[in-house]
Amino acid sequence: MNKHYETVIGLEVHVELATKTKIFCSCSTAFGGAPNTHTCPVCTGMPGALPVLNKQVVEYALAVGLATNCKINKYSRFDRKNYFYPDNPQNYQISQLYLPICYDGGVEIEAAAGKKIVGIHEIHMEEDAGKLFHDEEGTLIDYNRSGVPLIEIVSEPDMRNADEVIAYLEKLRLIIQYLGASDCKLQEGSMRADVNLSVRRAGAKELGTRTEMKNLNSFKAIMRAIESEEKRQIELIEDGKEVVQETRRWDDGRECSYPMRSKEDAQDYRYFPEPDLAPVIISDEWIERIKGAQPELRDEKRVRYRAEYDIPDYDIDIITSSKKMADIFEETIKLGARPKEVSNWLMVETMRLLKEHECEPENIKFSPQNLAKLIALVEKGSINRTVAKEVFEVMFCENIDPETYVHEHGLGMVSDEGALKEIIEQVIAANPQSVADYCNGKKQALGYLVGQTMRAMKGKADPQLVNKILAERLNV
Amino acid sequence: MADIITDEMIDYVSILAKLELTPAEKEQAKNDMAKMLDYVDMLNELDTSGTEPMYHVFPVSNVFREDVVVNGDDSEGMLKNAPERKDNFYKVPRTVD
């Protein structure tokens, strides 16, 4: 990054809310339905259809606004944003321009450069558009997503680099996931970010001309797009050219962007108040009720974990970085497992398998009940850690009951010392050299003999017990 | 007529409205729009400084629905409104090059 320039970034973040129905009609919002099976006259823009606001949308928007320190517009309205495109069958999107539900908030982020507040200009409610597919013959449209409720969170231009942008997005994602207002999956599009970026000479007060970047589907794409756009704008200025205010589309494969709209598609949305929807009046009691129902958020959880559980801060950060993980952690402890033990299973095996399966923590399948059972099996000495890891892998994929699984597959440990001693005698007889080495003072030879015994037992013995019996036997 | 619609304005409005106008239609539209604006100018003569803007014709607020799925799959019925269909999709001319 050129030291003579400063980058200024603001974000528009769209979040699909976790309601069961659409924002203005009683169609399902379920993901993955056959095309157009979740549609009705309202969400396909039929003349005369009357939209009616989903109360849960207002409640989620309020919850997110309050959790991000926003003020609430006690009197809020919807407006029509007019544009022609087949993803939008009404030829207008119902959104909020003049009186958005939340405004003037902010969240604290922790980036490499330290802590700072990123301001939130406003949060408004709006409807999503349908999905287009292009084939040789034409454009095909699925309106299942048309009318799915969104909130758009508009930040102030308070970020200066990609690192801060990612920290801000992570912060929003966690707040919203903890509230249960959305699952916030970038890849699946339930959280989408448009990046507004401009550059200016270091120390300048005036903002430069900004561009808006769309089609950013991962944190990596966002970082690459920011770096590329910074460079592009600085080069234009250095060459004595001007930055054009425009919307650009990021092509992550080619790692470059290109302008999206031409002059023929003037961005003039001619907003006006939506006459089909009544205004929303939010009482103090309503706000208090939403505040009262707010769950423990991540920052509070981190403080409490530090006080209640004897686990490292690093573990706390990882576990609380996903609502799902934090829920599993707490519930497994409630079922009697030791916090340190639960944390280990989450930090080591779970993280490893998530990475291996390219899976998000939110998609974890195993239940706290089964994790608690597995931990109990190890603590009781019914299975050893090696076997436990194997069982965990199956549990991770299929959420099996570890007790039943261990029983059915005969994985329980052989605690019969007689049987174990018999095997040990065989191992001693088969490995005279190692036995001689050990007796001559090469203590590490014992490890080899333990390994051979474990192998003969197919892993179903307690290695510590094997170690103890072997040492006693050879030290006679 | 106080208001005059320029050629640039009518071209811009036709882009927004996705209309291709013949020169004759353009002249007609310029005339009609100028008249409409004149009519609005008449409303502007009224003193509305003490009047609350009205956003809704009825004095109602907080008209909500509960978040319960009521609508089932009526894609067959809905797709009857499609200009053209392919499988279970609405089909329109290609929107991208």
Number of strands of chain B: 3
Overall geometric form of chain A: elongated
Assign an overall shape of chain B: flat
Overall average pLDDT of chain B: 91
Instruction: List the total number of helices of chain A.
Output: 15
N-to-C CA distance of chain B: 44 Å
The protein's oligomeric status is: heterodimer
How would you describe this structure to a colleague?
Chain A is an alpha+beta fold. Helix content of chain A is 39%, strand content 20%. In chain A, helix 3 links the parallel strand 13 and strand 14 (247-251). The longest helix of chain A is centred in the middle third of the chain and has 20 residues, at 219-238. The radius of gyration of chain A is 29 Å and the shape is elongated. Chain A has helices at residues 55-67, 162-179, 219-238, 284-292, 298-308, 313-320, 323-334, 339-356, 368-379, 385-398, 402-408, 417-430, 432-439, 445-456, 463-474, and strands at 5-16, 53-54, 71-72, 75-76, 79-82, 92-95, 102-111, 114-127, 131-134, 139-142, 149-155, 191-201, 211-214, 247-251, 256-259, 272-273, 280-281. Chain A is built from 15 helices and 17 strands. In chain A, helix 2 packs antiparallel against helix 3 (219-238) and helix 13 (432-439) packs antiparallel against helix 14 (445-456). Chain A has a nine-stranded mixed sheet with strand order 3-7-8-11-1-12-13-14-15. Chain A has a three-stranded antiparallel sheet with strand order 6-5-16, with no helix packed on it. Chain A has a two-stranded antiparallel sheet with strand order 4-17. Chain A folds into three domains: 5-286, no CATH class; 296-408, no CATH class; 417-474, Arc Repressor Mutant, subunit A (Orthogonal Bundle), CATH 1.10.10.410. The termini of chain A are far apart. Chain B has 97 residues and is mainly alpha-helical. Chain B has a domain at 7-44: Histone, subunit A. Chain B is built from three helices and three strands. Chain B has helices at 7-16, 23-44, 75-79; strands spanning 64-65, 85-86, 89-92. A two-stranded antiparallel ribbon of chain B has the order 2-3. Chains A and B meet through strand 2, helix 1, strand 9, strand 10 and strand 17 of A and helix 1, strand 1, helix 3 and strand 3 of B.
